[in-house]
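hey so i finally got around to running the thing on that chain from the lab meeting. sorry it took forever, my laptop kept dying and i had to restart like 3 times. anyway pasting the input first so we r on the same page abt which one it is
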Amino acid sequence: MPKLVLFCHSLRSDWNHGNAHFLRGILAEWGRRGFSAAAWEPSDAWSARNLAAEHGETALDAWREAYPDLPVTVYDPATLDLDQALDGAALVIVHEWSAPDLVARIAAHRRASGRYLLLFHDTHHRMATDPEAIARFDLDGFDGVLAFGEVLSEAYRRRFWGRQVFTWHEAADLSVFRPIPEIPRARDLVWIGNWGDEERTTELSEFLVEPVRELGLSARVYGVRYPPDGRAALAAAGIDYAGYLPNFRAPQAFAAARATVHVPRRPYAAALPGIPTIRVFEALACGIPLVSAPWHDFEHLFSPGDDFLVARDGEAARGHLDALRADPAFAASLASRGRATVEARHSCAHRIDELLAICRALGHDFGAPTKLAAAQ
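ok and heres what got predicted. didnt touch it at all, straight out
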């Protein structure tokens, strides 16, 4: 039974930490295959510290509501015993939001032991926007890179690797992200997302705040790190700001609204075209009509216009949201197509099948793909 060992910033906290979403789903799906797993996160994780400071230590256990069985160990970086942590590992994945010294230690351990397959997992824009930050990682000893979009894979191939880079998109865990039709639609629109370190302030105004204000929509926003002027802009548009929302409770928030929007951060839309980020997968999995600010789906993950609507500017966003409000049948059809695409191509089950295929390409056969993805 192959054992997966995952090193990441945090699984307990998703406070301004979207990487926890996909990693939780992947670890859970690995377990559903009958495989064993272990996850390690540092005791000084920034996201966990902020979540506990804002909502108390008990908030760090709330995620067990959705993932009661995921094996997570919180470790002291100063005393971590890698021989113990990696004992019995067949596959080791180190996420990009890990400390460079930890990455170097694991790389050295792999070079010395030679037993397990070691992969570096990147779901951020730094390779494109700040490549010197990635250059600090010692990837000598890693067997390959998992990059969450083809444009990021190409950046790794040019700078570091060559053929040992694999595109591995994020996806939705369909055991958590699903429609909940019994929840009544209490408002016109919901948006779930963090402020974004000024990476999308203008875009949030154009594609979210102003269309809501001009159409007089009832709307709610969830997220963290909103500055006073950001909260004031929401209030002026009549938007209810509800603060932090644990990601595993997003399906309930989507179910209570008639539509949502996707506003990618500028570095993703500009430097990493083709990467939608995980919010799109999760929203569509929940069966809510989605209006997206522009991003170029050149990898053909979805069918823009059929799975969701694309707004070239704020005026188009306003028109799409108005059309969805005026035509519930059209909205329901759009949501159904988006959900069907995620079910067919973009679940965590599909990504585990892809991961197993990558492992086989690197000479490690951990098992056959499931019928779910093999049939696609």
